[in-house]
Amino acid sequence: MKESATAEPRSTRPRMPASYGILPADQGGGLLPWSWARERLERSRNYWITTVRVDGRPHSVPVWGTWLDNRFYFSTDRATQKAINLAHNPRCVICPENLAEAISVEGTAREVTEVATIRRHLAAYDPKYHWKSKETDGPFFEVTPSRVLAFIEGQGNEVFVGRATRWVFR
């Protein structure tokens, strides 16, 4: 099994300017547990993926996908801008739809060709979206996170500054 599929990421505070008031981990409400982020990544219906075009311009679009074993899976047509971008530069950002509990996954995408992995993704994807996928509906991509950031808003500034968390996978 892949390393990040079994290993819990290390949690720290995000690096931000002092003017943001982010508290040290031993003050405020403390760091969010990884289970908090994982549960939200699993249940989200819509995600934003941001990739980078060959000329350096960003490209951000919504996608459907699944979060399994600390990785994000999705499929797209090879002719889409995101697939073209990922072929040139595999680095990307995935964000689920809920901005009140914002999560940003920074990672690296690779095309998935292993049939067993594609089948696991589709077994979670089809019931989630009430869809009937085929193993040939790819290409399929797997995004392995390197860093995940989380911020809770709407519950007062003390929650934002006391609970902001960064998880590092490497």
What does this structure look like?
The protein is an alpha+beta fold. It is 26% helix and 34% strand. It has a single domain, classed as Pnp Oxidase, Chain A. Strand 2 (47-52) and strand 3 (58-63) form a beta hairpin. The model has no long low-confidence stretch (mean pLDDT 89).
The CATH class turns out to be: Mainly Beta
Structural class: alpha+beta
Strand content: 25-35%
Given the C-alpha coordinates, what overall shape results?
globular
Q: List how many beta strands DSSP finds.
A: 9
Using the CA coordinates, give the radius of gyration.
17 Å
CATH homologous superfamily caption: Electron Transport, Fmn-binding Protein, Chain A
Helix-strand topology string: HEHEEEEHEEHEHE
The appropriate CATH architecture is: Roll
Percent range for helical residues?
A: 25-40%
Distance between the termini: 16 Å
Can you give the mean pLDDT? 89
